[in-house]
């Protein structure tokens, strides 16, 4: 990671002259002014990074093309035939392994729900100016690869190892800092048996936008930890102070607050919108009569143990039925609620509670970056008179 504020440009005669630096392309982080509209820059991000269409919550496993995407920089050009992963730093035996080598190792498939740490950001007031997620930044896929922990043990972690740094092939500038995308995990988290070096998604080789040919999967953690286009792993004896760990993904209340790191996914339930939509507003139209309201729920802290449903904007709540957790602790669960819709206007929502006792809030849990915001979803429904 390099800061570029002090760089200069060279003139044709060889002398140095003041000029723009790479840092000049970035604006500082900020909050939107009251009633400020989404900017062209935010729309540009929204066009590159898409959420799941909420009707796709009907799939147990999200098709790859419907799974949410957040790509910080460019999709890099990586040749799977020559791609190699290096493991170095504070290890006894540095390793270099090809994709073919990884495919020869024990093969594991896990269903894992991924959610962007900024999901729900655009609904906050004041709004943090960044990727303008509503509630759709989520997906549940089958990831196939080999466990990370055995490779780290083969490399030989020293007793003073603290952080494991994962570096992707994507490169860019963020808030004036030129960098490869890098995230670190504490050693204990990196050694969890469920952490994977994944090379397949839903039974097929990774697509370019999903990290081909190799990515990290860290079940239970928000999406920023699942480094795509993975090219190196470095063991460090001091805490990693790279941008994505020390600056970007932290829950802080103001610009001077050092904050706390974003890690595991907070519990959330989403409603699969019933009926059919208005094109512009996405308000739902539903015929009167019996209706099964359903959706998905998940948490990175502990299994979801309850989902409650509201049809009146949170004035009252009723228990939903949860499907068995047949796909493992890190995959979302289907829930359903039987409702008889009478003519009128309704606001539907659902809230999840996990085994650790965490429950979704009905008031916004605001922070400056818009991270880990699991405010209850609102789905407007109109039931017309017959």
Features:
disordered N terminus; 386 residues; 6-stranded mixed sheet; 25 strands; mainly beta
Structural description of this entry:
- This protein is mainly β.
- The chain has helices spanning 40-48, 99-104, 149-155, 187-190, 243-248; strands at residues 2-3, 9-10, 16-17, 84-89, 95-98, 108-115, 138-147, 163-174, 177-186, 196-201, 204-205, 215-217, 230-236, 250-251, 260-261, 268-271, 276-277, 284-285, 289-298, 304-310, 318-319, 321-322, 333-341, 344-354, 379-383.
- It contains 5 helices and 25 strands.
- Unreliable spans are 1-13
Overall mean pLDDT stands at 93
Number of helices: 5
Percent strand equals 25-35%
Strand order of the largest sheet: 1-9-8-13-4-5
Give a short account of the largest sheet: 6 strands, mixed
The chain-level structural class is: mainly beta
Q: What distance lies between the first and last C-alpha atoms, to the nearest angstrom?
A: 63 Å
Shape: globular
Q: How many β strands by DSSP?
A: 25
Order of helices and strands: EEEHEEHEEHEEHEEEEHEEEEEEEEEEEE
């Amino acid at each position: 990671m390099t800061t570029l504020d002090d760089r200069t440009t060279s003139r044709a005669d060889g002398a140095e002259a003041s000029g723009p630096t790479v840092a000049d392309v970035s604006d500082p982080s900020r909050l939107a002014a009251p009633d400020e509209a989404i900017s062209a820059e935010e729309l540009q991000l929204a066009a590159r990074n898409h959420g799941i269409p909420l009707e796709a919550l009907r799939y147990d496993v999200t098709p790859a093309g419907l799974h949410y995407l957040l790509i910080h920089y460019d999709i890099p050009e990586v040749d799977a035939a020559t791609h190699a992963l290096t493991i170095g730093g504070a290890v006894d035996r540095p390793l270099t392994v090809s994709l073919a080598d990884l495919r020869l190792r024990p093969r594991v498939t896990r269903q894992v729900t991924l959610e962007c740490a900024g999901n729900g950001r655009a609904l906050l007031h004041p709004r943090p100016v960044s990727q303008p997620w509503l509630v759709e930044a989520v997906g549940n896929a089958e990831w196939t690869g080999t466990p990370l922990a055995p490779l780290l043990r083969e490399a030989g972690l020293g007793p003073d190892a603290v952080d494991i740094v994962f570096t992707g092939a994507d490169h860019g500038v963020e808030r004036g800092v030129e960098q490869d995308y890098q995230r670190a995990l504490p050693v204990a988290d990196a050694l969890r048996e469920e952490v994977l070096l994944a090379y397949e998604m839903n039974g097929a080789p990774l697509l370019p936008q999903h990290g081909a040919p190799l990515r990290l999967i860290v079940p239970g953690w928000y999406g920023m930890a699942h480094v795509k286009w993975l090219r190196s792993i470095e063991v460090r004896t001091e805490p990693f102070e790279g941008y994505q760990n020390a600056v970007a993904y932290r829950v802080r209340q103001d610009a001077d607050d050092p904050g706390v790191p974003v890690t595991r996914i907070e519990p959330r339930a989403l409603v699969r919108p019933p009926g059919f939509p208005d094109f512009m507003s996405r308000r739902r139209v539903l015929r009167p009569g019996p209706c099964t309201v359903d959706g998905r729920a998940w948490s990175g802290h502990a299994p979801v143990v309850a989902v409650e449903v509201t049809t009146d904007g949170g004035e009252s709540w009723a228990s939903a039925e949860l499907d068995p957790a047949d796909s493992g602790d890190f995959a979302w669960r289907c829930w359903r609620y039987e409702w008889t819709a009478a003519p009128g206007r309704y606001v539907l929502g659902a809230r999840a509670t996990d085994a650790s006792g965490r429950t979704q809030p009905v008031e916004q849990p605001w922070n400056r970056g818009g991270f880990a915001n699991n405010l209850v979803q609102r789905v407007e429904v109109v039931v017309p008179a017959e």
